[in-house]
């Protein structure tokens, strides 16, 4: 579960208001999509949830742990895959995964099986001994996702996880998301791809200029509009592209 209450964030000494009084609750057992055009405030919000950035005001809790006042407990609740997978490129894939397993204290007895299973699931097993720098964008994205999920976190926070994945990898990740929430756990992810959000999410929020324009499920989207409009039309209306 993720809770945000009256969260604000500005950049450039207040000149750019990136997140504007945002209140949101992402429940256990749901895949929650975070939608918005470029520059809407999605990544800034995700960076505040994960404690990379501090909110100017408001509070954020993950499974009840405040990211500001109880950061270690809060961080142990989630796995986070950033939108830019170009990290630790000098390491071999397997070195990166072992490093992540060390950081999150994954026990030796379970880590090997877990690493091998996830590498095989994402078709990366053969490449695990290669330097990450030699990987394609999609391969880097997959290794970052595996690293984020190795400690079997209850809450998954994924920034644009499907961008750049081939159809098979995207299918596998979506399948994993569904399996995860079936166990009563939480998935929060941002996307530009409306079709994915429409098919995958239990609920979604549309953000524009730092403000939540809509939050609800697909039925609520349809009720919200007079006719049975598509998510695309609703999105375009709300974000006025
Ligand atoms: N470090 C920064 N300094 C100044 N302004 C910033 C900084 N980072 C983001 N911004 C601004 O804050 C706003 C929100 O940006 P953010 O990256 O959160 O949007 P986003 O929804 O993730 O966009 P995208 O879909 O393009 O990744 C934008 O106006 C952006 O230009």
Automatic annotation (TrEMBL):
Fetch the SUPFAM superfamilies from UniProt.
P-loop containing nucleoside triphosphate hydrolases
Q: Out of the domains of life, which is the source?
A: Bacteria
GO-annotated molecular function: ATP binding; ATP hydrolysis activity
- By its UniProt entry, which CDD domains does this protein fall under? ABC_DR_subfamily_A (cd03230)
Q: Which UniProt keywords apply?
A: ATP-binding, Nucleotide-binding, Transport
UniProt entry tagged with the keyword ATP-binding? yes
InterPro entries for the chain: AAA+_ATPase, ABC_transporter-like_ATP-bd, ABC_transporter-like_CS, ABC_Transporter_VariousFunc, P-loop_NTPase
Task: Name the PROSITE patterns for this protein.
Answer: ABC_TRANSPORTER_1, ABC_TRANSPORTER_2
Q: Where is the ABC transporter domain?
A: 2-234
**Family matches, as PANTHER family:** ABC TRANSPORTER ATP-BINDING PROTEIN ALBC-RELATED (PTHR42939:SF1)
The name on file for this protein is ABC-type transporter ATP-binding protein EcsA
Q: What organism is this sequence from?
A: Oxobacter pfennigii
Q: Which gene encodes it?
A: ecsA_1
